[in-house]
């Protein structure tokens, strides 16, 4: 099997292992390593993190306004000149100047009519539209909160299952390790007994040789 496609094996049971408690030096090393890793900014995001969304990519006006808000620049003052009705400055004024002033007055009048119409529409339908918008926002917020709560419950359940599994496996490992220690001790005792018997047999053989010589 290719090493790149082989599954990773982590030989650790974090919910059961107590090496850090048994060896304070290891705990200090882990804390130093975590302190170094916490201060580092990862070069790449996690694969499951969605890419950044560029807002108003196709609307330069809204994009410029967003950049202004991000840079905390003040909002530009309103241009009040276009709302004024300046008269011709030259005396006597020409017909062309009066025509421009009259066209400006007509434009201002039409603008005021449009504003009056928009205010009337806003007064009649704006409150209901705003309530509907708020209702939709509240529904979206509740849905997101529910999704977040479900994800937290799922995370808690996964951690609980991992803890139970690791605790069960850890207990089995401890039992097997204890049994292994007992078997090794028995083997050592048997080997020591064999060595003692060999020494006793060797002594008896020498004794037999001595007796035969006599």
Report the sheet with the most strands, covering strand number, pairing sense and barrel closure: none
Provide the gyration radius in Å. Answer: 43 Å
The residue-averaged pLDDT reads 86
Residue windows where pLDDT falls under 50 for at least 5 positions: none
Return the domain count. 1
Number of strands: 0
Which structural class do the helices and strands define? mainly alpha
As a percent range, the share of helical residues equals: 55-70%
General shape:
rod-shaped
Give a verbal description of the structure.
- This protein starts with 18 loop residues before the first helix and ends with a helix.
- It has one domain (19-41, 48-77, 86-198).
- The protein has 214 residues and is mostly helical.
- The model has no long low-confidence stretch (mean pLDDT 86).
- The chain contains 4 helices and no strands.
- The radius of gyration is 43 Å and the shape is rod-shaped.
List the helices and strands and how they pair.
Elements: H1 19-22, H2 24-38, H3 60-70, H4 95-213
Task: Please provide a brief summary of the model.
It is built from 4 helices and no strands.
Give the key terms:
mainly alpha; 0% strand
